[in-house]
Structures are given as C-alpha cells and as structure tokens.
Amino acid sequence: MYCQNLGQPITIPDVRSGTQILVETTKSQKQALASVLKENGATLTEWFTDNIAEATADFSVEPIETPQDLQSLESLADPDEVVSQLKQLDWAFSDDDTTYLSHDIHPYPAKFIPQIPRNLIARLSLPGETVWDPFGGSGTTALESVLLGRQAISSDLNPLAEVIGKAKLLTPTKEDDDFLTSLVEELFILAASEGSVSEALNRFVPLSQFTPDIPNCDQWFHPNAVAELSYLRARIKTFQSEKCQRLASVCLSKIILKSSFQDSETRYARCQKEFPPGKIIRLFAGALESSLKKVRYLGTFLRFREAQFLTADLRQDDVVKPGSVDLIVTSPPYANANDYHLYHRFRLFWLGFDPRELAKKEIGSHLRHQKEQSGIQEYLEEMEQCLGHMMHSLRPGRFAVMVVGDSLFAGKLSHTAGLLGERAEKVGFEVVGEIQRDLPKHRRSFIATARRLRSESLLVLRKPLEEVKIRIYPPPYKLWPYEAEIRRVEIRHLLGVRPQEDLGNVLTARISPLQIDKLRLLTFSHSFAAPTIHEEPTWQAILENGDAIKTSARKDPKYVTHGIHAYKGKFYPQLARSLFNLAGLSIGQRVLDPFCGSGTVPLEAYLNGLEGVGFDMNPLAVKIAKAKTDILLVDPYLRDRLLALFQQRVAGLKPSSELDVFPETAIQEIESWFPAKVIRKLVALLRAIRETPDVRVKEYLEVLLSNIVRDVSQQDPQDLRIRRRDKPIEDAPVFELFLSHLAEQRGRLSEFASRSNKAPCKFRDAHIWQKDSRDPRNFSLAGIAKESVNAIVTSPPYATALPYIDTDRLSILLLCGVPSAERSQIEESLTGSREIRNGDRREFEAAIEHGMFGDVPSLTARAIVTKVHRLNKSADVGFRRKNMAALLLRYFGDMTKVFRNLDVCLKAGASAFFVIGDNVTTAGDQEVIIKSADVLTETAEDLGWKIRQRIPITVTTENRRHAKHSITENDIIWCQKPD
After folding, report:
1. What's the rounded Cα separation, in Å, for the pair 426 and 468?
2. Which residues have CB under 8 Å from 958's CB, separation 6+?
C-alpha cells in the first residue's frame, strides 16, 4: 500500500504478513497522530491494524481458509491413516495471518498459532462436537472451535485466561454496543478535564475498596493511576450487562502495564513515567473503543456462539465430566520456560486475583523450578496427573493432540514429546504418532529458553476404541404410540441394530463409539449415555430445550422460527424430521415437499444440513415459509441489530392517516374489516417495515405483523372461518402486540444462534417456490432435474378439507394486496379446493355418469366418487354437497398428476412419505368416508412404488369453533421407488 501526500513517510510494520506498509503524509499530521496515540497508549501498528480491519471487513467470508470437515466418525477408525493424513500438511504456516479477529484482543505469552487447532479440529471432529483445551491460555482453541461450529471448553490454572477468553468470544447486542459506545464518549470527555476527573472519582468514595493490596504498590503505580484504575474498576461493577462487564474487564486488564511503572510487556523492570489526571481513563476509553471495533467485526463470525471457560488445576480435579469430550487440542506449558504469574502479576492483582497463589502451582514455571531446584521429572509427574484426567474426559476412540517443545534443564536438552508419550501410555493412551513442526524465525518466543527452539512436536494420542452398551433415553414428554414405534425404527435405520427394551422407555444397543454421530440425529430420543460416554442431548433436544437434557414435559413445536405464524393443517416439525431419518438421508442431500404450506419441511431440512425445496400455491404460505427460512440466512449479529433498531423505531411510531401502503383496490375491504384507529397504526407499521434495508428482514417483519391480524381486526380470533366478532372493536394495541411478538421471536432467533455450534451439521439453504406441483414444467424451472430428489416428505391437502385462502384472507389482503375476486381465483386453483365453477362441475359429473375417471388409477377413488355422486344426485341437498363428487374426482386427478411428476424427480431407491388422513362427507343421508390414504397408496402402487409401511398416527386439534369435523386419524404412507 502506498499513499502519497506531501512526502513525510510513516512506516508501519504489518505484523500479519511480515511486510511493511509505507504511507506518506504531512509532518504535522504525523506528529498529531503520534501525540494522540501516545496519549491513548496505542502504537501506530495497533491503530492502523484496527482501522484497516474495520474498513476492509468482508462479512461474507471467514478471514482464514476453512479446512474440509471430517465426513463421519467412522473415518477415524484407523489411527495410522489419521496420522498419515495429518503428516501431509505443512504445519509451519509461515506466511499465514495469526492475529485475525480477536486473537490479539489481549497480550498473552507463548500462544500457539490458531491455524494449528483449526486444522486439527476440522480433521478430527465433527460439527457440534465438544473440543477441550485443558491448558487453554487466552482461548485460541476455543475461538477456533466455535468458528468451526463446535462446542468448546477451555480451562487453565491462570484466572486471567478465563477473563480474556470470555471477552474473546463475545457477541454484543445492539443494546450492549450502544451502552459501551456512550461510555467511551463519556470517558473521553471526562478525561479531558482535570476538575471533572476529581469530581467523578469523589462520587465513588471510598475508592480504596476497589484498590487491590499490591506489595510495594507506590513503587509500581502513581497515585493518579491507582485512583483512576480503582474508579474504572468500580464503574465496571455497576454495569447491568454481563457482556459489557466482560469486555470492559479485559480492557482494564490490557491497560494495567501501561498504567504502571513497569518498563514493557516483556520486561519486568521499573521505568519512571508521567501520569497526569485523566490519562488512565483516556487509556481505558481508547482500549475499549478499539476492542469494541474488534467484537463488532467478530460478531458476524461468532453469531452469539460462546465457549465455556474454567479456572481449574488439572492435576487435582476432573475439570470436565468423564467421557464428555470428543477431541482435545492443547499446548501445555513448556518445562522451565515461561512465568505466567510474573508476566501478568499486576493484571491479576487488579482483577481481584493473587499471582502469588498462581506462582506456587504453575506447571513448567522457570522461577518455580529454580526455587524448588527441580528438574524435568517433577514436570513429567505433574503432566502425568494431567494426562490421567484428560484420558478420563475423552470418549473411546477419540484423539488428543498436544503441541510441545523440547525442554532445557541445566544445559541438557530433553525431547519432551517422547517423554510425555511414555507418560501418556502409562495412563492408558495409545501413542499414535509424532509430527514435527518447524518454527518460523520471526515468531520465536521472547523467553530465552524457549527462543532456542527451532521446532516443536505435535504429539498425537488416542483413547483406545472399545464397543459400548449405549442407553438411549426418551424425551421428557409422553410419546404417542406411533412416535414410540418411529423412535425404534429411527434407531434401527441409523445404527443398523435393533434396540433392546429397558426400564423407563430406555432403549439399549451395543455399538462402536464412532457411531454416536448418528445418535445425535435422533428425533424421538433426547439423550444417550454409556459407562464411558457422558450423557449427551440429541440435536432435537437442544433445539427444543437448549442445554438442559430434560426440561419441559410438553413437546415444543415452535422452536427456532416454526412459531412465527399460525397456520392451519400443518404437521409438526418433529414428525417431519423423524421421516428424514427413516429415509436414510445424508448431510447435503435434497428433500422435496410439493405441498410445503408454511414451510415445516424446508425449515427442518435447513436445521439438519439438508437442501430443502418446497412448492405451494398459497401466496401467504409461501411468504411465511420463505420468511422462516430466509431470516436464518441473515448474519445473526447484523440481524439482531436490525431487529433491535426496529424495536426502537416502533416504540416511537405514531398512527398515520395516509393509506398509500395499500392498493386502491384493497382499501374498501380493509376499512370493512379493521377499525379506523387500527388502520392508521397498521399503515405506520407497514411503512416502517417496508423501509427496512434487508429484504429478508422486511419479509420476516411482515409475517410477524400478519400473525397479529386476527387479534386487531373485526374477525373472531377463535373462529377457523372468517366470521365477524359478536361485538365489534373500535381500537386494538397494534404496536404493543407486534412488539411483544417481535421480542419473543427475536429471543428465539438469538437462542438458536447461540446453540448453533451444537448442530451436528452445517446448514444449507432452503428454496421455496410459489408453484403448482401438478405442472411438470415447474420442476425444471425450480432446478429439479430427473432423479435429483433424495426424499419426498409432505402432508398433502385433504380433499375439500380446509379453505386455506379464505381462512387467511385478511393477511393476504393486507400484505399481498390481493382483493376478494383474485383470492377466489387462487382458492379455486388449489389442490383440494372446495370451489368449482358450474361448467367444470357439469363436465366432471358427465364423466362420472359414463364411468370415465381420466387418469385416476385408484379403484378406491373411483368407487368413492361414484357413490357420492349417486347418493347426492337424487337427494335434496345444498350446492356444497351437489359439488362434492366433481370436487373429489378433480382432487384425485390432481393428486395423480402430482405423483407422476414426483416419480420423475425422485431417485431410484429413494423414499417418499405422505402424511394423509381420511375425512368424512355426507352424501344423501349417509356418511361417506373419503379414504384418501387408500387412494394415495393405490396411486403410488400404480407407479410401481413399493409401500414400505403404513403407520397410523393420531393428531390433536386446536381449540377453535367448527373444528368438530377436523381429522384426528392420519396415516404415514411410506413409499419407496424401485431401484
């Protein structure tokens, strides 16, 4: 980079690439910048790096290349092959950036570069698994684990490691950002006035309770520095947001050495400095401003995902639960090399810890070895204790990789990796191999003993693989009998073994531990465990309940975005997901729902790493389905900020008398169904929504608004059909209802984002189309080629069962601007519609009279149509019943067309599931059962499909009027296309 101005150069060493950047500017500008940076305690390199990172941030890609993920645990079965693959990598990473994102948020000695854990995590674990760094330091492994979609645990004896780690993996909300931005501005203003500083400090009297008891404090800290550091510590304690406290605490720690007489980060010597009033406050404000920029940029990659940080002595305790870790990646302290307690002495005091306690326990401490006159044997004995706890925490067949360097005691060099390997075997590990890594010259340690190292080793260990008896636990809620049966079938299909019954609906099976990735996919089982495998929740349990293994006694069908909008006749997500397992789908495969309704199947496909495709003709259904899937594609950090901004905007909205957000053709009907006061609020809200910059967020907000339409209109909210309230309303709390719904859904989105590193897959986009599944051309227009679909999962419309368009007419009117006449046309065109033109009815009836059933192959369908026509023909019935025979023939013909299109796109050997039920009509004076399940079964068999199973299921009905004829008995028809 070369910027030419007036010839005064500033040379900036680029620590990321090892090159230099020359910028030409004026002498006065150079002096001014140097003066400002000096006052704020920042170097030119730090300032330039922070600002160029923010200016050139590309939020669409990771700042570092992501390795190829492991495909399945079974590929780890051969340890020799695993090591062979690892040895093919160049582990030096000489030219790579090692300080991206928040890896440099706080100084920490002897960090290992992030590329090492990143490559090990990708190659030795799966998404959603747990990675532990038992010597976590500043959280390098933890951050890389989370960025790669893993759960992370980082433990360390040094309490400062927990402080740094929690700040390093922090995604601020809009509210957090606003608070900290205001705080930075306030502190800069405060620091500019000596009188203001004195006044501020006096408000926190006595500050002495926030001043640590540091030996010889006056020799290391100026009185002004002590007072202002105490003031800042007191202020941080008052923050209501835990995230704000975390970031502020790490910034306080970061400036401690600049606030002291210590010479530098790496030199524990006294050096006289000036500390005028306000300097420390200004240093802190600068550090906080810089760190806030980092976490803003980081937020788009972290996406509210966090790690668990622990302060613990690995020699004494089982830091994590036995059998709960899938991979260990760590760089233990080198023997006789570093002194973390000394390096961070003053920081630890100011954060409320005692570095003298750390000094007594620190493994590998150079000063401790000198004081105790101990050699490498003591180090190895302590490390053996640590290895024992690591072994205990790891699951069978899984790996631990330690990055270690040789040790120097009394001038004698020892090969530490080999010695640690011997100790590892002693506690039960298998030593799988050792990989040498050359150290770049410009990145060697400032510690003298460590600086001599020219290479270090990756010691690869494995806990022996042994078969386990796994216990598979049911959900905390009661399962329907058919769900219990599907639960067994899921296990059999995923594991290839038939589970055995145990007490309390617990199922057991003997499996390899390298099959537990399949257990995580179960739907109607919520956790699993074995003697050497700690109980772990399935992904479905996490989606429903978060981290708790057993919580609610009720099934939650509204997790993630399933609950953004009510929709009649949808089947619940757990059922859809279980059918994916029965179909034997693998990550990345395509599942199609030709009648996707509000998008249950496409959303479940997204949540489980599948490509979901959905068709529907109902414009509101398509709008809901796209909203509930597309909103998940928006960067969670930016999405949360947009939603927070919109919440703030709605809080200040005023009703509007302009109706320009509605088409002229819709206004009269809107005025008929909504009170005037409500209309003015809806206009203001819709206008604000349509000014939202991200179209996906805009569509999402419109759907949230649609969900409250019944509650703010003259429609009876408890009525399935469109009927007016018995007592009209004059007004409704539109803004309040909307904000309440938005707050709930924003919370669900944030919860899902924070849990997403527990997902056993990478998410794949869903594709929703407003298309007719009866038309074969629509499949090619949607990019669905012949035999390109791996499974079909759908709940087709029932014959004449639900008036979908009429049921949601007010939402379609408000959001889509579709007036009554156009809605009627859409309603009539739907498969299963109750509307038919007289001319079409007469044509169908004539065909029935002549025994002509077109392409309908089902004999059951033909018999039903004939019976209904015969009974109604001579009876005195209304027009609805008169239409029934023609409607049924049209419906069965439409379903036949759909099946033939599905036969073309479904792969040979693939499964198709149809959740369908029988309903009842009255013909003449008789009740006639419309056996839709039998009809679809016969239609599938006519195509040559095999019926694998028909599973009878029971569903519940909503508490609404006119629900007495709702379908409560359904079948899952499981078909399979022949190979």
Report:
1. 23
2. 568
Strands 151-156 and 19-25 turn out to be unpaired
What are residue 752's phi and psi, to 5 degrees?
-65, -45
% residues pLDDT > 90 (the chain) = 66
Instruction: Indicate the pTM of the whole model.
Output: 0.89
Place of tokens 């930016």: 638
The string of pLDDT tens digits covering residues 409-454 is: 666 778 889 999 999 999 999 999 999 988 766 544 444 455 456 7
The model's pLDDT over 64-78, given as tens digits with 9 standing for 90+, comes to: 677 787 889 999 999
> Residue 44 has what pLDDT?
64
Amino acid at 641: R
By the 8 A CB rule, do 407 and 422 touch?
Answer: no
Sequence spans of domains, the chain: 2-36+44-55, 73-169+305-462, 174-302, 467-556, 632-742
* Residue whose C-alpha is closest to residue 41's, from 263, 280, 346, 276: 280
Q: How many angstroms separate the Cα of 471 from the Cα of each of 145, 195, 510, 524, 528?
A: 28, 68, 9, 14, 5
Dihedral sign for Cα atoms in the order 836, 842, 844, 845: positive
Q: Kindly report, residue by residue over 182-202, the tens digit of the pLDDT.
A: 999 999 999 988 788 988 888
**Joined tokens for residue 426:** 């002693």
* Per-residue tokens: 665: 């053709």
| String of DSSP letters for 369-394 | HHHHT--HHHHHHHHHHHHHHHHHHE
Class of domain 73-169+305-462: alpha beta
- pLDDT bin (cut points 50, 70, 90) of residue 963 is very low
Closest CA to 577 of 627, 536, 534, 542: 542
Contacts of residue 9, Cβ cutoff 8 Å, sequence gap at least 6: 22, 23, 24, 25
Q: Are 943 and 899 in contact (CB under 8 A)?
A: yes
Q: What is the pLDDT of residue 40?
A: 58
If you ran DSSP here, which 8-state letter would residue 428 be given?
A: T
